[in-house]
Design a protein that fits this description.
- The complex is a heterodimer of chains A (242) and B (257).
- With 242 residues, chain A is α+β, with helices and mostly antiparallel strands.
- Chain A contains six helices and eight strands; from the N terminus they run H-H-H-H-H-E-E-E-E-E-E-E-E-H.
- In chain A, the strands form two sheets. Chain A has a four-stranded antiparallel β-sheet, with no helix packed on it. In chain A, strands 2-3-4-5 form a four-stranded antiparallel β-sheet, with no helix packed on it.
- Chain B has eight helices and no strands.
- In chain B, helix 5 runs antiparallel to helix 6, helix 6 runs parallel beside helix 8 and helix 7 runs antiparallel to helix 8.
- Classes of the chains: A alpha+beta (242), B mainly alpha (257).
């Protein structure tokens, strides 16, 4: 039993060290390399092992089950699980096991006033999927600063389902539209003729789990390192005062 | 080199002069005069930041010139906070930090301002950057305490290092989470595998590792604790300057140049 606990401890120490080293190495290779490396098959196994080790530690070691500490570690597990669900591999597994046909991400080019359902790949050459609702670009425009520099790209989008209007929103950078399990981002624009807008569409699978994990991590870290010392400090002051 | 002959430059150099003066005076054991000079330096630094804010019309945190300016004013309130609540009295080294962080703002980076690009027009722009800068200043102070501990071998210095890291780790976490939430709003992914993101993850993991190590061994390996913090802070410097150090892999954070 003791050997088992020791092995668990050692392997748990190794995983974050490995992750730190890999993060630093990947910074030298750039974004594209990092994205494909951290989504590779070997790394998928690493992520799963990481989550399992964290969970096993929480079960085996009692000190980790204290309020704030537990919250922070559960938060990390949630973020990692959310990331797995939202990844390309996660989408494939969801399609195979549960029949949920969703694409992880894609692009839509819409001409001004036109309606579109086709989702294309990154270079806009190939159609990779079709939405089960329609997106219409009612209006698209560029806002400029007084000196001519671009302030923002905007598109007023109308969502319809089988011709029936659902809702309308003007999107811009930093202000996406959320509908039908996807976020629609303002991604590109026809700079010359102002005739079309390019939307980046990203699946929201696993996102709420990630955000929930973030709240847990924030609560855990601030609780353990800010609130706990603070309550100690005030208790001590009160004791000294009396 | 970018020496500034403008009013703004003059304000920065005055603040630097007072910070350095405060440090020298404190070293000569005129503590009271030192803290007054430190306060005057802070006032000048705060004025130059506000001046910049009014001039450009947005929270000036867009490029390295502006964020070093911000760090130059964050250091004084931090000293006050640490001596009041954490019982860490290392004010004179903070004066030195104040001087050092204003150096790049004064001499290295140009004060050119650009209109805010679409990606930065978000309420998260201020909080994300400001929280990170505060975290970096806190960790700089932690690293100095750690270096002093290695030099003087006093366990109270090790303790104050630990207190600073506890304070800074919360801020690092908040900065990372805010950045991730913002990335989702602006770029569509809550994690973009961008080099700067990878460095900040590494920094977060290194300090998380320190806190675990410290939780298990307390002061048993006090020297290792201090070396760990210094190593973590070195990574912070690389993370902060990465966009400049490596222009090839600037990634999504490239506008921060």
């Amino acid at each position: 039993m003791n050997i088992l606990r020791k092995t668990l401890k050692l392997s748990t120490i190794m995983t974050p060290i490995l992750l730190t080293v890999l993060s630093i190495i990947s910074a030298f290779y750039g974004t594209d390399w990092s994205r494909s490396f951290f989504n590779s098959f070997a790394m998928c196994i690493f992520w799963v092992v990481f989550v399992l080790l964290l969970a096993a530690n929480l079960i085996v070691f009692k000190p980790l089950r204290r309020g704030w500490v537990l919250s922070a570690h559960l938060g990390i597990i949630c973020v990692l699980l959310g990331g797995m669900i939202g990844s390309a591999a996660g989408h494939k597994i969801a399609a195979r096991l549960f029949g949920i046909e969703k694409i992880p991400s894609g692009f839509i080019l819409i001409n001004r006033g036109q309606t579109e359902t086709e989702v294309s790949s990154t270079n806009l050459e190939k159609t990779i999927s079709r939405l089960n609702f329609e997106v219409t670009a009612e209006d698209i425009w560029i806002e400029q600063y007084y000196d001519g520099q671009i302030k923002d790209f905007k598109s007023t989008l109308a969502i319809t389902k089988q011709g029936r209007p659902v809702f309308k929103k003007t999107i811009e950078v930093n202000r996406p539209l959320h509908y039908g399990g996807y976020h629609f981002y303002q991604s590109g624009f026809d700079m010359e003729n102002h005739q079309y807008t390019i939307l980046h569409l990203v699946s929201d699978s696993g996102l709420s789990l990630v955000y929930f994990g973030y709240w847990l991590i924030i609560a855990g870290v601030f609780g353990e390192y800010w609130i706990r010392p603070m309550t100690k400090y005030f208790k001590k002051r009160r004791r000294d005062g009396s | 080199m970018a020496v500034k002959y403008s009013t703004q430059g003059l304000l920065i150099y005055t603040a630097m002069f007072f910070y350095l003066g405060a440090f020298v005076v404190s070293l000569a054991r005129y503590r009271k005069l030192g803290s007054w000079l430190y306060f005057v330096g802070f006032c000048f630094a705060a004025t130059t930041f506000l001046w910049r804010w009014i001039m450009v019309g947005y929270i000036p945190l867009q490029n390295l010139f502006e964020i070093f300016l911000l760090m130059g004013i964050l250091v004084w309130p931090l000293t006050l906070f640490c001596s009041c609540f954490l019982k860490i009295d290392a004010g004179r080294f903070d004066m030195l930090i104040g001087f050092v962080v204003l150096l790049p703002a004064g001499f290295v980076f140009t004060a050119e301002s650009k209109a805010l690009p679409p990606a930065l027009q978000s309420w998260l722009f201020g909080p994300h950057v400001a929280v990170y800068m505060l975290a970096y200043i806190v960790m700089a102070k932690a690293a100095i305490e750690a270096a002093r501990h290695l030099y003087r071998r006093s366990s109270s210095l090790e303790m104050s290092t630990y207190k600073m890291v506890r304070l800074g780790f919360g801020l690092l976490t908040a900065g990372l989470v805010l950045g991730s939430y913002w990335a989702k709003q602006a770029w569509g992914d809550w994690w973009g595998w961008d080099p700067k993101e990878m460095w900040s993850l590494a920094v977060w993991l290194i300090f998380a590792g320190y806190l675990h190590f410290r939780a298990v061994f307390a002061q048993k390996y006090a020297k290792v604790n201090s070396f760990w913090v210094i190593a973590g802070f070195s990574c912070i410097i690389i993370c902060l300057m990465w966009v400049n150090l490596s222009k090839i892999f600037a990634g999504l954070h490239s506008y921060a140049y």
